[in-house]
Structure of tRNA dimethylallyltransferase:
Amino acid sequence: MAIRMDARRTFAFLWRSWTVASGVGREFRNPRRIVLVGATASGKSDVAMRLAERLQGEIVGADSRQIYLGLEIGTEAPTQEDRARVAHHLVAFLDPAETYSAGRYGREARAAILEIESRGNLPIVAGGSGLYIRAALEGLFEGPSRDDTIRARLTRRIREEGLDALRRELERVDPEALAGILPGDSVRVVRALEIYELTGRPISALRRERAREPLQALIFGLRWPRPALRDRIAARLDRQLERGFLEEAKRLAASALPEHAPGPRTLGYRELLSHLAGAMTLEDARAAIALKTRQLAKRQETWFRNTPGVHWIELGAPEDLARAAREIEDRLDHATDRP
């Protein structure tokens, strides 16, 4: 427990130090970039659309599920109508059989941001994937290719010794890397130890050597009371099912994707595919989707709560989304006009 709490405190300190040094999240002259974060179902797409239409903006998606083509209903991706009204980037463009890393997203998102600016428009990065947003602003070190033998051995140790044993080992060889890994994130612990074994050097040191200049931006977060967000998640799921979420899952099942393909493993589709296979009722699938979406929202809230530099906007009713857009516009104008 002490290791977990120390890791959280150190993680927050490192993020705070980085944002102060780089300017991310800080108000500075002409910060013509907006980043909009928050839990799933918090209204980020709504606010982003309002801002884009008022401020000649283009939206860069930052959602690890909305990237997949043909999964627009279940991932609540911007509709075709929204994409016709406002230019969107990195949304509904990838085959569900294709994997997509945060490192690749960071490169493509940064390119999109700079392209938008070259046209004189306002980049609005909107999404709930904290790692994607970090990759876009700061970049990510991807490291050497995976070693399946090392990964299998480390994964077996997690089963036999527990994740805390590997966290303690990582704390000995690379405490800085451990500080940036949330408790329970076994994938990143394994990757950090894997890179240490492959290179003999801490991943944190390799990241510093290959770091690039961070993109400056104003970061805004949308925050709802937990009961209100729970209701919004339930209402959204009902709308998705009415719009054809199940039919979308049927098309995905008919596409006969490989077992390892990320599309069928996406939240919501896994449960509906289980229903279609006869493993659960539709009502049970709906309940499972709602529960896992609430769990996702909690993880997102934890991530962004530990991200310094976020200007939080408290919400309590749907009409507050229009107010949030106005507040962001006012703050952007204020920051731009400062001497």
Q: What stands out?
A: The chain has a mean pLDDT of 89. The longest strand covers residues 218-223. Strands lie at 34-38, 57-61, 88-89, 122-126, 218-223, 310-314. The CA atoms of residues 141 and 206 lie 8 Å apart.
